[in-house]
Automatic annotation (TrEMBL), chains A, B, C, D:
One of its GO terms (biological process) is glycine biosynthetic process, by transamination of glyoxylate. Substrate binds at R303. One of its GO terms (cellular component) is peroxisome. Its cofactor is pyridoxal 5'-phosphate. This is Uncharacterized protein. Belongs to the class-V pyridoxal-phosphate-dependent aminotransferase family. It comes from the Eukaryota. It comes from Gossypium tomentosum (Hawaiian cotton). Keywords: Aminotransferase, Pyridoxal phosphate, Transferase. One of its GO terms (molecular function) is L-serine-pyruvate transaminase activity.
Length: 357, 357, 357, 357
């Protein structure tokens, strides 16, 4: 039995963890296997090739480390940097804050550039710092692509233009850096992976068999839908959500359009409302999970995650729910207004499902 | 991989098959077992007791026949009637039509009372027939409780008042009838079940192990939510759907309020629209499954099933989808109007989820 | 949680229900779908074609009736015969007994040919009856291919030689018969199916979505292994089991080699042992499910089902378990003797797994 | 579909990953949830309490770090030690070797005590080192409890007697050490966990929802079987395996009885056989996964893992398989001999399953 029962589907609209497609759940529903049999290396080889397609790289080297995002961050830092190295890091919300904390505890010399929460990274300051860095003391620029606490997406293309390089999965340059990086690491060490990649057995320690099969199914689904279509679907849902927020007369925590995120929208509530109450109501009355406001924006924003295995009608159910909750907590929303605004846009923009034409 | 892929959840809003709760799917996800071991009879014993609670009967005898609804109909008829017996049957839509066809092919003498599709059973005529039946030739009254083709729910309480009896699962009276019923049956024969009920092994032939565990999980969920709450949730969703239909300026196929169904709403479309096109669009563009109009109402109605493991936000996603589809096919709907009408009602009537207060 | 917990795998060795392959369980682990969408008919069309390959027929017409084996029997009988028709039926064990009971209750004129339990159908008598039947009163010959109560497989090729015809799924001849057959049936009526086959929607009533996907996965597995290899695997396991029984110094209930079954072996126990005690011990101490002796052979035989998703090492675990149980109940078995005999045969006959060479 | 198909169950007998109970697989077969809802902390609180029961501690503090065993090692080391600290580490096989490598790369001063592979840790040398350590330079003693490469279990009770302390999960002493430990860590840092334990939200970063539910189900199963019974079952299977090895005339890689492992047996093969060929055959012909010999014992041993969700009949199937494989590769085994030896012991020692008496 589930831990806390509620009828119907739970409407999961946090920016993570996200909804998992049923074929992926099915693929993971299996007993363990010997990861040293010929089957797992053969499968891993294909997975690594296919993951590179998602990163749109042919030169990169992907690592499938059995950990969460926080561990992946640590892996990226410790494999490319040495203690004492200077990093320029942008503090724009809770997740960039946590990342900066990690960098500091890993003993890097972190040059923090702070912006008001709701703004993107200040790239003018970055340009200044780079210009002033005649002796090349800046070893890394740490920038959260999508700050889920405030719904801000930073423009990495501009960052890259400033730098003239591209870092995706582990670029050849990152791999090169990992040879001389002096940060202490074992579990996260790319070199152990590379050793086993060369041997063709691929795994320095036991992988999660279930996650490998889940990744296989997830990649198949992405290729079936088309990576471009997946991205377009997220863009569409981000736009629809923002139109609803506008129709409700509420403000987006993200201060400029150029920073709008396709995957999460942080909504500012009027001062007389505690946004935590909205999240609580969603869960207690409507079987919906919304994202809390964190740290500096606690109580001030609630967040709608619109990413993962979601489609437009699911999102519209969420938006209708948010309208009722806003009314519940005393905000004078016009019921149907946000849904109508989202529908007006979506009805003109949702494509036919290719496999069903 | 799924047969025809679409991103996100499929929005299943046909009046059957219905959405299955995840705990039930999980419970069914298991290998077979020996049904002659002590475990299965012990489990079956409890299941039969608990099924009686759903039928709100203590005197009734439930049968769990491994078949579909059509087979259950046949079971009910052949176990209580003999060829040539007179039945009064009400023809009010596609499913009552199919049932009457079954009765005729099983060689009963079927006295058909037809109403216009969209109306309920004509109980005045039933009263007349009963009054005129001095020699008690009427052996059964066959009335579809919920005609899903037209969204009509018949008032069984009134039928019972006319008759002075209650038929639920197999009432003692039905069981008595099964002893003398001369209809030919083997697979559906209740007497084989009764023999094994007495032996305490319960199964005259191999049951579906998976369905037994699924039933167990389903009953547990119903008891956890509370049967009254389950019914209230369906009533609420029926009401919300009808309010949306009204807001769209469309007519309900069900002609009078007394016949409104809690589980399905058949919506009449204007003559210049083919309702099949609505169902097709729902599936091809919005990953939603709506019910077709059948037989006499083909092309004229589409149906929204609002039953099973569903909650209000799921329904609102469906209603928002229907609005976009109506616009797609040229009906001048005001986007958001139906959702707003449903929300205005629901926001005042959805209770807190008891386990989450 | 499971109903009656035991550590490790349950060893399921009854002749039914049988072990389900994990990919089939995974395929069935899904929510419902609208069976009227384009996806289900497209899938059903392929399923029907592929099922014909399993029946090795191109002229036959398969029916996927949502029922158990008992219902399938009823379907075959009522669609081809009329009340009063003469059938010749062979009574050789519990399952042929149940089938004859069904034929009698469906009002056929059943000419029963009984053999001692443990023998196959007496085909000499059949030859005599056919020779004497100048006026062609025999409308059907009903012969259980594999009598699981006694582990007897009848030689259908010989039966066919006597008759000069082939009955597989519904042969064209059987379909022809269904047009004039007067047996009352609705749920089981092939004609309803045929009507929907012609329409291309395939289903006269709601199918089990889960079972369709399960069938798809099962067919894929059979084609991947190769139907011939599936059959050879069963033959191998039947042979291995009989060698073990012989090594234990016990007799096979099946009296002649020509009747040995590839899928189940019924083992006779000495008179001082109650075979039900063996089955009970298997379940209570070893987490194994063996088949009981039924009716005439109750207490005298226990049955080892060796069919479905099983391989040789699973069978050897079962045989080792049976040896311990035999010792438990006082039979002076030499531990390891049956396993050794089975291994000596299997070690020379198990092929490499083709996908792993 | 599976990656590399084989009929029947895969017989998984590697010392890890191990067989997962079906109820655990079922529990993990679920969509994500918001880990910040009230449900997950409530569940986590109970999990932590119940995990302590498995560690048989009331004073300890468990950490559920989303990582594999290698990560858990790193967590234990970096949270209690500082770079330069002296550790005494015992090298007795591949897994202790990997652990020592980790300690060295984490910059501890590792005092390695090597034994021949197949022997346990040399505790005499430990006693000498401790006696000589007047200035308390030894900060930790690193001893692999169960060296799965050679099937050696070290006697931790003796180690504890030498030391006068008990380390299980994180003892109060270990927690105290974590406050001053200077090893660099973030992802693995216990202090982040402790901070969230205090807040009652429990998770410093996103946990795997699926693994939490799986752990819940696994704990329930252990409590249902009884922790003592789980351990006794493993002891029984270890003993049975060793009896089979002896009956085959082969030697155990583990050199003394006091080091025998309940969970894995490493079997030495004669010099004219390559043990890798045995593992390969098991997989290619019998759908069985055995453990390879690693590093120093590569080609010389194969390993039978007998742990996790296994019962005796599964093990006997494995042993019968090993006998056939030994014959396949030219070793003159007497078929049935190992199974017989194991059965003779098991038949007297397997208890009734308590829930089935």
């Amino acid at each position: 039995m589930d831990y806390v029962y509620g009828p119907g589907k739970n409407h999961l609209f946090v920016p993570g963890p996200v909804n998992i497609p049923e074929p992926v759940l099915r693929a993971m529903n299996r007993n363990n296997e010997d990861y040293r049999s010929p089957a797992i290396p053969a499968m891993t080889k294909n997975l690594l090739e296919d993951v590179k397609k998602i990163f749109k790289t042919s030169a990169g080297t992907p690592f499938l480390i059995p950990t969460t995002g926080t561990g992946a961050w640590e892996s990226a830092l410790t494999n490319t940097l040495s203690p004492g190295d200077r990093t320029v890091s942008f503090l724009i919300g809770q997740f960039s804050l946590l990342w900066i904390d990690q960098q500091q505890r890993l003993n890097f010399n972190v040059d923090v550039v702070e912006s008001e929460w709701g703004q993107g990274a200040n790239l003018d300051i970055l340009a200044e710092k780079l210009a002033a860095d005649h002796s090349h003391t800046i070893k890394a620029i740490c920038i959260v692509h999508n700050e889920t606490a405030t719904g801000v997406t930073n423009n990495l293309a501009t960052v890259r233009k400033l730098l003239g390089l591209g870092i995706v999965c582990a670029s050849p340059k990152a791999l090169e850096a990992s040879k001389s990086a002096k940060s202490v690491r074992v579990f996260f060490d790319w070199n152990d992976y590379l050793k086993f990649y060369k041997l063709g057995t691929f795994w320095p320690y036991t992988p999660s068999i279930q996650l490998l099969y889940g990744l296989r199914a997830a990649l198949d689904l992405i290729f079936e839908e088309g990576l471009g279509n997946v991205i377009a679907r997220h863009t569409r849902m981000g736009k629809a959500t923002r139109l609803a927020v506008e129709a409700w007369g509420l403000k987006n925590c993200t201060q400029k359009e150029e920073w709008y995120s396709d995957t999460v929208t942080a909504v500012l509530v009027p001062p007389y409302i505690d946004s935590a109450e909205i999240v609580k109501r969603a869960w207690k009355r409507y079987n919906m999970s919304l994202g809390l406001g964190l740290n500096k924006v606690a109580g001030k924003v609630f967040r709608i995650g619109h990413l993962g295995n979601l489609n437009e009608l699911q999102l519209l159910g969420c938006l209708a729910g948010v309208e009722m909750i806003l009314k519940d907590v005393g905000y004078p929303v016009k019921l149907g207004s946000g849904v109508a605004a989202a529908c007006a846009y979506l009805q003109n923009n949702i494509p036919m499902i290719p496999s069903r034409i």
